[in-house]
Amino acid sequence: YLCVGEMLPNATVLLCFLALQLRHCAADLCSWTGSGFAAAVDSRIVLQVRLRCTEGSVRWVYPGQAVRVVLEPNLSSNLRTTVCIKPSPSFRGASVFIERAGELELLVTDGERPRQVFCFRADGPHRPALYLQASPQREGHWSRRTMGFRYELLGNRSAVPDLGHTSCRPCNDTELLMAICNSDFVVRGYIKNVTHSPESQTSLVEVTAVRVYWQRSRVFERQVAPGTSQSISSWHGHIHTLLRCHVRPGDGQFLFTGSEHFGEAWLGCAPRYKDFLSVYQTARAARLNSCDFPSD
Predict the structure, then answer these.
(1) Of 256, 243, 69, which is closest to residue 153 (Cα–Cα)?
(2) Which of 3, 28, 160, 239 has the fewest beta carbons under 10 Å from its own?
(3) CATH of domain 173-286
(4) How much is the pTM?
């Protein structure tokens, strides 16, 4: 499932290796695991990996030279795609670049504390591609290093945030009306607790929901009555957000919306429910609502 080609020694220059005659792999793979030992034989080797699923993982043991990972699942013909990656905790030995229009943009540097999730738009005619550049090692010395990440590809979803550049300001009326139509989850409930993690620069909002309008996966689950196996009417779940947004517990009902990444909910718009109803009813009366919402 691997192909090889030549590369220039400096990965920060234009991707000149794209002009070379490279053999490409066409493998129905969701995940890839490989090693950099091939680079010890030929320092010009670049492993060419093609992944055909909307989610999976990459694991590179003993990183050496470079790997180019092309993500080309069978999505719709829409050229607008969002790519999200989550670096593994043991991210060592290589840096990750985004390939855009023949240039490389640094995403994660070897040795830095990686963000929990990073999303970016992959627009244009070419499939999203990631370029993994191994860090130099002492000659003749191969240390046990492993770099890896999980990835997700999403279609044209305007509600998907770039988690590295999320705005903490409240959503305006237009953004709120779009959020209830495009979000991965929409729930109504109360903030039970908020915990902050300076290490990961994130906050975790614990939510007791009285109604789950929809959710892409099972982020919110029905609570079980103490001492029994029977579920009760309320739901329970957790929503992630950035620490710099300074989320605090508040009284009253909120309408929580957002996106799901790697089985985790990330906060989008979260107005007080009564404020949302006022915005929605005004828009509906003027026939400006983007979609119907059960406001009972």
Answers:
(1) 69
(2) 28
(3) 2.40.50.120
(4) 0.67
